[in-house]
Structure formats: structure tokens, C-alpha cells
Amino acid sequence: MDSLSRFAARTSLAIVAAACLGSGSAAAQPARPQPAPVAPAAAAPAPAGPEAAAIKKLLEQKFPGAEVRGVIKSPYFGLYEVQFDDRIVYTDARAKYLVVGAMYDSDTKVNLTEERQRKLNRVDVAQLPLDLAIKTVKGTGERTLFVFSDPDCPFCAKLEQELKTVDNVTIYTFLYPIDSLHPDAARKSRMIWCADDRAKAWDSYYASGALPNNKGECDNPVAKLATLGAKYKVNATPTLVFADGTIIPGALPAQRLEAELASGEAEAKKLAAAKKS
User: How many Å is the maximal CA-CA distance in the chain?
Assistant: First the structure.
């Protein structure tokens, strides 16, 4: 563990999320906090300048081995926003003090740090290997949702229940068994993948617990998806990825799913338009 991680571990509080936690083949990880309700965006941070570059250099000296991905002036109290790996912290102009925690808007009750983090950690959905996913089309299928799911995770079962009331969406399910929590999940994942109709087998399993009549010995993507999940730091199931690449762990209720789907689709269109311009 690097010096910053030790510092953060001593000062941060873990918030339990509605998800099964683990890392595919490693021990369980601390829970990620559930995002606050979607709200108007906070003021944008100012562009980086010479002072931000100096702060970055100071922090790299103070925390050897830590990856300082970026430093920019935040809109809060003259502080600077610092990206350490996939974490946001705040510091002053001399990098003397570090604020490890979330910035909240007391009027909207929105976790501004988490909203910002979600944007910074977006997945490039165009790079997701859809041929390794179980594809389910509901209604028109005009919206898109990607899910990392473990067949033995109770929160994944809860998500499947919530998804029953969500229509007009194409769902790509990546089989992501967490061995440390569910030793039999990988076997079940392989059996579901080896079914003639994978989407039907997935639904049938959650409806009745019935598994396909095969030994799960076909060519399957379970090992590859463990690597993919590690790449995107997926340590909880279910983990949802929306059309704009936003990642949210946990079994979201249907109403929240609808809001996030709408937000993700709208933001994806903006991002696509910006690339063309």
C-alpha cells in the first residue's frame, strides 16, 4: 500500500453499498458509496495552470509511488482538486493540507465529489467487448445498459427484479463471478454461457434457480471478464455502466434506473456531438 493509500485508510469512512463486494478472484474490497440523486451539475473546475503543476510536483514528492493523475483549481474555498488514481481529494495552494472526503451541496444534498468522480472515471463503452456479454433486448431496445453480474449475488437478483419494470433497453450482461464470496458462481456462469439461448438461461435461472443442462465446458469468457473487470476497477456486483460510460455499483431501484438511463443517453449524445465538432 502506498503512502497516500495508508493516509486515506486512516482518515476515510467506508459506506456500505447495496452490492456484493469482491474482485473476481481476490478478497473482498471496501464498499463504494452509493451515488446521490442526480442533480444539476456543479460549477466546473478551472483549467489547470502553473500553480496546479507545482502542486502536482509537491504531492508526488510527499507521496512517493502515488499516481497523481491531475490537479485543477476547484470551485470550492480556493482548494485544488487532486486525482490520486481513481480517488479525488482536495488540497491548498502549498499542498500542506489534504481534505480526504466528499464535498456536498447542502441545498440539493448532492455529493459533488462523487458526481465529479463519475465523470472522470467514465468507461469508453465503444471499447467494451459486447461479444463476451449476454444480450437481452426489451421493447425497442433503444437505450443501453451494461451490467457486471454474479449469478449468486443477492443484489444482482434484486437488480433483475427491478429491471422487469424497465422497458425499451438493450442490456449487455457480463458474467463476473466473485469467487471469494460465491465459490460456485463461476461454474454457474459457465453453464449459463454454454446454453443454446443465453438470455433465456439467464432469465430462467433468476426465475426458478434452474440451470441449463450442460457441464459448462464450452469456450466461455469468464476468465477474460475477470481481467476486464479488474481493468475498470469493478469490485462489486452488480456494477452498472450507462450509455455515457458512467459507472454505478449497486442494485438501483427502477425509478433510479430510469433516471440514470435517461441521463446517460442524453450525455452520450452530447459527448458524440462534441467529438464531431
Answer: 64
Question: Strands 80-84, 87-91: parallel, antiparallel or unpaired by DSSP?
Answer: antiparallel
pLDDT in tens, 153-197: 999 999 999 999 999 999 999 999 998 899 999 999 999 999 999
Query: Which pLDDT score, from 0 to 100, does residue 6 have?
Result: 55
Residue ranges in the chain modelled with pLDDT below 50: 9-17, 23-42
User: What pLDDT does residue 178 have?
Assistant: 92
- What is the reported pLDDT for 85? 73
- What one-character-per-residue DSSP string does the chain give? --HHHHHHHHH------SSEE--SSSPPPPPPPPPPPP-PPPPPPBPP-HHHHHHHHHHHHHSTT--EEEEEE-SSTT-EEEEETTEEEEE-TTS--EE-S--EETTTTEEHHHHHHHHHT---GGGS-GGGSEEEEETT--EEEEEEE-TT-HHHHHHHHHHTT--SEEEEEEE---TTT-TTHHHHHHHHHTSSSHHHHHHHHHHH----SS-S-S---HHHHHHHHHHTT--EESEEEETT--EEES---HHHHHHHHHHHHHHHHHHHHHHH-
Cis peptide bond upstream of 50, omega within 30: no
Q: How far apart are CA 28 and CA 31, in angstroms?
A: 9
Residue 135 CA: distances (Å) to CA of 129, 171, 226: 12, 6, 18
pLDDT given for residue 124 in this prediction: 92
